[in-house]
Amino acid sequence: MDIKNVFQAKDVPEAINLLDQYGEAAKVIAGGTDIIIALRENHVKVSVLVDISSIKELKEIKTSDDWVEMGAAVTFTEVMDYFKGHKEYSGLIEAASLVGSPQIRNAATIGGNICNASPAADFVPPLLALDAVLTVEGKEGKREVRLEDFLLDKGRVDLNKGELLTTIKFIRLRKGQTVTFSKLGLRKALAISRLSTAVYLEIDDDEKCAEVRVASGSIGKHGLRERVAEESLKGKNLDKAAIDEASKVLSNEVEKRLAGRSSCEFKKDAVEGIFLKAVEKAMVHNGDGSYCAMGTQYYPRAAGKE
Ligand SMILES: Cc1cc2nc3c(=O)[nH]c(=O)nc-3n(C[C@H](O)[C@H](O)[C@H](O)COP(=O)(O)OP(=O)(O)OC[C@H]3O[C@@H](n4cnc5c(N)ncnc54)[C@H](O)[C@@H]3O)c2cc1C
């Protein structure tokens, strides 16, 4: 590690100026939980770090009528605190709470998790399921990019030199809409995700699946939308047969994707289980073998069925 300067940026323009000034020699540091290891192991070679961890505007979470917007330097502990008690966002709470240890969650940021672009990044699948949109800022100005398009390859994101990820936003969830997350790790604590699934579910007034988005972690070069599983559920009554069918479809897709890899056998079976868990978390059981989405219990018609 050959760091000559660490600058504590006080706002976004200052961080962007520093990144522009030092060019290839500089990198952003937020919580430092990934980059310090990368620097120590010589996977990253820079001499200047631009610390964004005290930029106030990057540490805020705001909910407006239509959107939820989170600053890139928000930590996992802050995510857990903000969404506490909001069942519809249980996927964000759970993904955040399963990252590393309390010490890691106090430092590690959501922007760092995205920009590090690990296939196992826990916060990426629920954000993909929410179809999150990122704001990236640099000398040339601001641009918005969907998270799905931002992830280019393992360890590579759509970020030009001198650009900073500033916010992550998604459409505010309403009744009948929910996002959930399920993870299979090696050990309970400090486990980097071996496999994860996030599900966004929306039920219409006829109790059919109006919208569903499924995303996975650790079964591709980065977090991925699982569109075949989505297509299998869309428009259907969410009974056990439909959900089981979608889990089989997902398993077949994983088998095709990982063909020839030693992890294929394990992952194609395991993904069925964690997908079912993520879907079930989004539902309440009607007692007759059928389900309705968690949020729909607030609708009078569905409430009568409980
Ligand atoms: C013991 C341990 C356990 C862990 N467990 C988990 C786990 O269970 N699940 C999991 O997902 N991760 C885990 N991690 C990985 C890590 O904690 C997360 O990926 C974390 O979210 C990274 O955030 P950070 O703020 O520390 O990023 P940093 O280390 O500060 O930065 C990571 C990368 O992103 C870039 N970057 C950061 N912020 C921005 C920004 N706003 N704009 C542009 N570039 C930016 C940096 O330049 C760097 O390249 C673990 C790490 C450790 C050390």
Explain this structure.
The chain has 2 domains: 54 residues, 2-Layer Sandwich (Uridine Diphospho-n-acetylenolpyruvylglucosamine Reductase, domain 2); 250 residues, Uridine Diphospho-n-acetylenolpyruvylglucosamine Reductase, domain 3 (2-Layer Sandwich). It contains 12 helices and 16 strands. The relative contact order is 0.12. GO terms for molecular function: FAD binding; oxidoreductase activity. This is Xanthine dehydrogenase family protein subunit M.
Count of extended strands: 16
Strand order of the largest sheet: 4-5-10-6-7
The quaternary state of the protein chains shown equals single chain
Name the bound molecules: flavin-adenine dinucleotide
- Distance from N terminus to C terminus (CA atoms, Å) equals 60 Å
CATH class of the largest domain: Alpha Beta
> Strand-residue fraction?
25-35%
Count of helical segments? 12
Radius of gyration using CA atoms only: 20 Å
Assign the structural class, choosing from mainly alpha, mainly beta, alpha/beta, alpha+beta, or little secondary structure: alpha+beta
What's the helical proportion of residues? Answer: 25-40%
Query: What would the principal axes of the Cα set say about the shape?
Result: globular
CATH architecture of the largest domain: 2-Layer Sandwich
> What is the residue-mean pLDDT, rounded to a whole number?
90
> CATH topology of the largest domain, which one?
Uridine Diphospho-n-acetylenolpyruvylglucosamine Reductase, domain 3
- What is the string of helix and strand elements? EHEHEEEHHHHHEEHEEEEEEEHHHEEH
List the domain count as a whole number. Answer: 2
Biggest sheet descriptor: 5 strands, antiparallel
Low-confidence stretches: 295-306
